[in-house]
Amino acid sequence: MPHRVAVLALDGLLPFELGIPDRIFGRSLKPVPGDKGAKLYEVVTCSVRPPGPVRTDADYSILVEHGPEALATADTVVIPASYELGPVFEEGRLTEELAAALALVRPGTRMVSICTGSYVLAAAGYLDGRPATTHWSSADHFQRLFPQVRVDPDVLFIDDGDVLTSAGVAAGIDLCLHLVRRDHGSAVANEIARRTVVPPHRDGGQAQYIHRPVPEPQFATTTAARAWALGRLDRPILLRDMARQESMSVRTFTRRFREEVGISPGQWLTQQRVERARHLLESSDLSIDQVARDAGFGTATSLRQHLQAALGVPPTVYRRTFRASADTP
């Protein structure tokens, strides 16, 4: 059976964020040679009230066809942001109807928030003693309201196992892609990212950077250098060689790269090589030494160190875990 995702639509919701789970999870298909593939997730949108209209922060409402009973059948519950949280935002407590709806959620259900949807999780007690994030502009208020939560305002999302929180808007896309990658591997997640025309992977620990001034528009970009590097990840790549692809000095290239990507060229290269290694570990029977060489880490020792730092597991364990989960019906 497909993994069932229930998206809780609250009054004052942001239509963009409401659509993220369906766009990511609803388009995830199991790769089947010569076939379209079966759906990996079933996405339903529900309200805390019986089926009917739910207000948005735009000049229209949406008609939600499921009531809170849908939460009782969910494997994952996603709570997008809302601008009408009332006592949840002001006092840190749930309304009666919201509390009654969340009481239907089965123990062990995976709970996910997008942006200020984290207020609902915190008010319900899901974040007590846990690390969490929210939109950077609300982080200080969130921490004051919920001192029992370990708030990190500088990251895109936090995966704490069965409870996950993300920063604002686009970080919700990153978190949903992360869940697809966690559930079914990078190949499925990357395909969804390509269809959605978004980056396939932004690490959760990457800073939000939203509070920094937006750089002035520039004609020159680092796109060509990144494309050049992606085509030769298995070979040594020097910073000066990347800068040469854009006819820039190393200093100018490094500054421009940070402005466009949000991290340094070295950090970006490591991320891309980790992703290449994950793909090879999931989809091939290459030895660990060969995976290390093809991903550009050179040695199995270097691959182990980088994969351990990024994922918390060595290559052999990652491959064994992914193969075991992929073979489970």
Number of strands: 10
Q: How are the strands of the largest sheet arranged?
A: 2-1-5-6-10-9
What are the low-pLDDT stretches, counting only 5+ consecutive residues below 50?
Answer: 205-219
Mean pLDDT: 88
**What is the CA-CA span between the terminal residues?**
8 Å
Word description of this protein:
With about 325 residues, this protein is α/β, with parallel strands linked by helices. About 45% of the residues lie in helices and about 10% in strands. It is built from 14 helices and ten strands. The chain has helices spanning about 15-25, 85-90, 95-100, 120-125, 140-145, 170-185, 185-195, 225-230, 240-245, 250-260, 265-285, 290-295, 300-310, 315-325, and strands at about 5-10, 40-45, 50-55, 60-65, 75-80, 110-115, 130, 150, 155-160, 165. The strands form three sheets. Strands 2-1-5-6-10-9 form a six-stranded mixed β-sheet. Strands 3-4 form a two-stranded antiparallel ribbon. The protein has a two-stranded parallel ribbon with strand order 7-8. Strand 1 (about 5-10), helix 1 (about 15-25) and strand 2 form a beta-alpha-beta unit. Helix 8 (about 225-230) crosses helix 9 (about 240-245) and helix 9 crosses helix 10. The longest helix has 19 residues, at about 265-285. The N and C termini lie close together (about 10 Å). The model is unreliable at about 205-220 (pLDDT under 50).
